[in-house]
Specification:
The chain is mostly helical and 175 residues long. The radius of gyration is 25 Å and the shape is globular. The N and C termini lie far apart (72 Å). Helix 3 packs across helix 5. The protein has two domains: 71 residues; 69 residues, no CATH class. The longest helix is centred in the last third of the chain and has 14 residues. InterPro entries: EMB1417-like, TPR-like_helical_dom_sf. It comes from Hibiscus syriacus (Rose of Sharon). This is Pentatricopeptide repeat-containing protein.
C-alpha cells in the first residue's frame, strides 16, 4: 500500500504551468493597426489636395477605402485628429460626415469633433440638426462633454436661449 500511494502521488503531482509572456505575438492584431499610420497620412495627403466639392471629396474617400476588407476606422479617426489639429474644419466635416454616411464612427468622440468643426466653420444650423439627432438617438449615453460642447457652441454664437434648452435637456436626462 505504501508503494501504491507513492505512485499515485507521482501521478497527481502538478506540472508547472508555463505562462504566456509579452514575447508571444498575435500577428493578426499587429497587422490591423500596423498600417494605420501610413493609411492615415495617405488619407490626410489625399484629402488636403482636393477642391472643396463634396462629390470630389466623397469620391476620393470612397477610392481610399475601396480595396479594404474592413473599414479602416482607426486610420480615419487618426486622420480626423490630424485635420482637427491643423484646424482644417471643412475637411473634418467632410471626412466625419462621409464616415457617418458609411455607418462607421458613430461615437461620441466623432460627434464631438464634428460639432467643434461645425462651430469653427460657423455652421450652427447643421450643429443643431446633429445635436437633435444625437438627443433622439442616444438619450441614455450622451456624455457631459458633448453637452458642454453644445453649450459652448451656442454661447460662442450668442444663442443664450439654446444654451438654456441644452441645460433643460441635461436636467431632463439627469446628466
Amino acid at each position: 500500500m505504501g508503494e501504491q500511494s507513492l505512485s499515485i502521488s507521482r501521478v497527481v503531482e502538478k506540472k508547472p504551468v508555463k505562462k504566456v509572456g509579452k514575447n508571444e505575438h498575435h500577428w493578426w492584431k499587429k497587422r490591423d493597426s500596423a498600417g494605420s499610420g501610413q493609411k492615415t497620412l495617405n488619407l490626410v495627403r489625399i484629402i488636403s489636395q482636393l477642391p472643396n466639392e463634396k462629390e470630389i471629396v466623397y469620391g476620393a474617400l470612397d477610392k481610399w477605402v475601396v480595396w479594404e476588407t474592413e473599414f479602416p476606422l482607426i486610420a480615419a479617426a487618426k486622420a480626423l485628429r490630424i485635420l482637427r489639429k491643423r484646424s482644417q474644419w471643412l475637411r473634418v466635416i467632410q471626412v466625419a460626415k462621409w464616415m457617418l454616411s458609411k455607418g462607421q464612427g458613430a461615437t461620441m468622440g466623432t460627434y464631438d469633433t464634428l460639432l467643434l468643426a461645425f462651430d469653427m466653420d460657423n455652421r450652427v444650423d447643421e450643429a443643431g440638426s446633429l445635436w437633435n439627432m444625437i438627443l433622439h438617438t442616444h438619450t441614455r449615453s450622451i456624455s457631459k462633454q458633448l453637452f458642454s460642447r453644445m453649450i459652448s457652441l451656442f454661447d460662442h454664437h450668442d444663442m443664450q436661449d439654446k444654451v438654456i434648452e441644452v441645460f433643460a435637456d441635461m436636467e431632463e436626462l439627469r446628466v
